[in-house]
Amino acid sequence: DTVVLQNEMIDVISIALPGVMVEGNVYSGIIEGGNHQLKELLEKRYEKEIYLINDVNAAVVGYYASQNQYKSIAFLFQPIGRMAGSGIIVNGQLVRGMDHLAGEVPLKLSNDYFTLANTPEGTLELVSKNIMSIIAIVSPEAIVVYSDLILDGQDVSDEIKKSLSQYSLKVYPKIIKVENILEYILLGAMILSAKE
Q: Which residue of 99, 157, 189, 191 has the fewest C-beta atoms within 10 A of its own C-beta?
């Protein structure tokens, strides 16, 4: 409220949050009730254009913009105790899919998903399984991983190589572990809202 009051030149407010944004509705497990017409509520409150974006889509756009080595990348975010999400760029284009569902990984890869997502070992297992799914569907050049419970990106690379070795594959996507997701979310949200 204070920022908007103090800065009259703000035309657009961009908000990155987990979940699926469809026509101003937010479908998210972190917002009670799951479905909210957040865009409409915020536009009425602030009398500004509101742009809602998935947080990991923003992160992948931000990461992509900060490098020039890869044309196809995925960004996987595995929060502690919650479901993972991913953002995907193929040939320089953000993949949103029908109703912006691309990249949502709410599929339970294990019956004890939430238990696993609370331990380093369990998180490594979940991240590895999610990455295998991403490789099978998109096969990006690089996969960026952010998780507070993954301490070393080499552990993820080793797990992926081990899993793919059964298929005699010699080429693997580059696994890049980042220590901060927020800088990429901020950059990506600015880029995406500027395009709108």
A: 99
- The residue that leads in pLDDT, 87 or 38, is 87
DSSP string for residues in 43-62:
HHHH-SEEEEEEHHHHHHHH
- What share of the chain has pLDDT > 90, as a percent? 39
Supply the pLDDT for residue 192.
Answer: 92
The tokens describing 191, both together, are 């880029």
Residue 186's Cβ-side half-sphere holds a number of Cα atoms within 13 Å equal to 4
Residue 177 pairs in a beta bridge with: 145
| Tens digits of residue pLDDT in 89-121 | 999 999 987 656 666 665 556 678 889 999 999
- Looking at residue 173, what DSSP letter applies? P
**What is the identity of the amino acid at 23?**
E
Specify burial of residue 15 (Cβ count, 10 A radius: 0-12, 13-18, 19+): middle
What is the spatial distance between Cα 183 and Cα 74, in angstroms, rounded to a whole number?
16
Alpha helices in the chain (DSSP H): 2-6, 38-46, 55-65, 113-116, 120-137, 153-165, 182-195
SS3 state at 28 = coil
Query: Maximum distance among all alpha carbons in the chain?
Result: 60
